[in-house]
Amino acid sequence: MRRVLKAAAVLLAGSLAAGLGGCATPADDGAGKILTVFAAASLQGPFTSIAAAFEEQYPGIAVRLSFAGSSDLVTQLSQGAPADVFASADARNMAGLQDAGLVEGAPQDIATNILTIAVPPANPATIGSFADLANPGVKLVICASQVPCGAATKTVERETGVVLKPVSEEASVTDVLGKVSSGEADAGLVYATDVLAAGGKVKGVPFAEAGKAVNTYPITALHTSRNKDLAAAFIAAVTGPDGRKILTDAGFGTPGP
User: How far apart are CA 8 and CA 210, in angstroms?
Assistant: First the structure.
């Protein structure tokens, strides 16, 4: 992580020097600054690691992370919530933010992800395929359609012809995972990275049709940010080789060129 952060430090120092006319950097003056990052709930693990390393590199700068469903975050930003960086779990929600004129420059793709089925470790409903989710009596939980994981679920439904009848639709993928890990649900559709992060709390049931709905994650600085140099440095840390390694280790795929 230090290599990419060193590169980010050079970028930050140079841009601050240009933008502030030689004033001391936030790290130098000790006053401290807060960089606010809004990110999709599924990015919680890797972004927490990247933010911790970023803060270590820049004493006096705190990264404030806010995780939720991408559609909820877009709504908050559109209503004026202050933030510097936004990372979405799909291109559709990022496009909505671009249409609202809130994106600074062109978003960069940082990762991909696919759905998988999460079941309690004992798999009480004996789920073994996507079609099994439509079996009578299965307590299934999915994401709401406006959330990226919910949109991906709808795509798989259309492609397979399997009609799901969930008992609940949640506002974020972490809420779906929580209901499965607590035993409230027999199964839930989450990302493959969520099952990996959950450890032994749930069991993953991969299905081939997941490849029909691959979500790409873009990241961007926000037009309203008052910390554009810091935002650029944080994005450089995420998109650099060490940031990508953290994402890969968490189970995310690499976006295409």
Answer: 35
